[in-house]
Amino acid sequence: MAAFEHKDVLALVELAEADSLYDQHGEAVFELLRRDFMTRLQQWVRSEDKCASLERNRCSVVLKSIAGIGQLELAAAKLKRLFSKPYTEMGRSIPLTIVTGFAPVDESDKSQERAMRNASTALRAARVKARDYEVYQPGTESSLGASRETIRALELAVERGELELYYQPKVHAGFRNITGAEALIRWHREGEGIVTPDQFIPIAEKHGVIRHMTWWAIKSAIARLARWESRISLAVNVTPTLVLDDEIYWVIRDSLEIYEINPACFTLEVTEGVMVEKQNSMLEQLAKLRKLGIKIAIDDFGTGFSSLAYFRDLPADEIKIDKSFVMHMRESARDFAIVNAVIDLAHNFSLQVVAEGVEDEFCARQLADMRCDYLQGYLIDKPLPLEDFERRYLSQSEVAQRFNAERPSASRLH
After folding, report:
1. What pLDDT, on a 0 to 100 scale, did the predictor assign at position 145?
2. CA 115 to chain CA mean position, Å
3. 167: closest CA among 233, 211, 214?
4. 49 φ, ψ (degrees, to nearest 5)
5. Low-confidence residues of the chain, pLDDT below 70?
6. Distance (Å, whole) CA 377 – CA 364
7. Residue 98: burial class (beta carbons within 10 Å; 0-12, 13-18, 19+)
8. What pLDDT, in 10s, does the model give residues 34-59?
9. Which end of the chain has fewer CB atoms < 10 Å from its terminal CB, N or C?
């Protein structure tokens, strides 16, 4: 990490996706967004700092006498916090996303010019890596080139057959028999082995590559259901921006018709956090998709601060309790109470509940006692390649025999 001890630091702050915001909302609304961007930025700037507007969606701020990298990280965290709430106008909520590049500044004018170039490089790197900010380091240019190469490789991954679906089982909480699976993308990049989603999905989302990959995943999952003769259900997690893409309706509908699949065997998972951010449009789109006969699951439930009104109107069949609550039930009475309350509330609204992140038998038994419907997590199994999944779960009628624990008593089954 570069040394910043008592140096000025140039911050290049950009309102992200400006062209998209302009096209989507028009000139008048965009001007209001730009003004709000400047107002919030001014709240970040200290009296001794210098702020200058460069373009319609970009500003430079010279942060005076930064004591060290720790102070810079605190400044970046405060900036993110100032932009955490969406812009609200006449009942509409529009998220404002910012991206920042930081670079140290020396005293001379020449050094300030160099700092601007370096901050621009750091800003581009933050965009490519889908990060809130990036600090300039020598060699950032070559790293940025490598990231561009990653984007191009992702664009070709489907055509080259480098993407593969892994399958993580979902079992009944009481009987422990398999009821379904979640299809998860893995990238077999040539020369690098298996690349996990956390390494490439954020980049794919940021640069629009995720669309082609997601349509492939949906089609592949539905085709797999045809080969399995709908013996279990199969879920695909879709990034929220694509749920609002009208083409998803036709991708799912056409795939179901081509492979003659019972729609109820296919589940579309969408993250709760963005459901809350874009509530009206998301609820309408999910209701439309649900009319196809597919099931809708709300993923990472408990992280989006949902209201009861939202819960009442939710066009869904299933919620998946976020693993951050499930994994800490044993040590945290509050997490235990949250999980228990969510299960009861969901059942009152005729929703089924999946607990994610189940990693030990004690937790699984607690969830069964709470009348949770299904379990998913490493206690059951990790995501598996197709052949391993089929051999382990579809070649036998009873999965419970894999567990040494006693079968739960009849009073705990539901």
Report:
1. 55
2. 33
3. 233
4. -80, 165
5. 1-6, 90-92, 107-111, 139-147, 273-278, 303-310, 396-414
6. 10
7. buried
8. 999 999 999 999 999 999 888 778 99
9. N
Please state the pTM of the whole predicted model: 0.65
Q: How far is CA 37 from the centre of its chain?
A: 24
The pLDDT of residue 114 = 84
Amino acid at the residue 396: Q
**Could you write out the three-class secondary structure of the chain?**
CCCCCCEEEEEEEEECCHHHHHHHHHHHHHHHHHHHHHHHHHHHCCCCCEEEEEECCEEEEEEEEECCHHHHHHHHHHHHHHCCCCEEECCEEECCCEEEEEEEECCCHHHHHHHHHHHHHHHHHHHHCCCCEEECCCCHHHHHHHHHHHHHHHHHHHHHCCEEEEEEEEEECCCCCEEEEEEEEEEEECCCEEECHHHHHHHHHHCCCHHHHHHHHHHHHHHHHHHCCCCCEEEEECCHHHHCCCHHHHHHHHHHHHHCCCHHHEEEEEEHHHHHHCHHHHHHHHHHHHCCCCEEEEEEECCCCCCHHHHHHCCCCEEEECHHHHCCCCCCHHHHHHHHHHHHHHHHCCCEEEECCCCCHHHHHHHHHCCCCEECCCCCCCCECHHHHHHHHHCCCCCHHHCCCCCCCHHHCC
C-alpha distance from residue 12 to each of 22, 44, 118, 136, 222 (Å): 21, 13, 10, 11, 45
Question: What pLDDT was estimated at residue 269?
Answer: 95
172: which 2 tokens? Answer: 């009944």
CA–CA separation, 55 vs 399, rounded Å? 61
Whole-number pLDDT of residue 260: 94
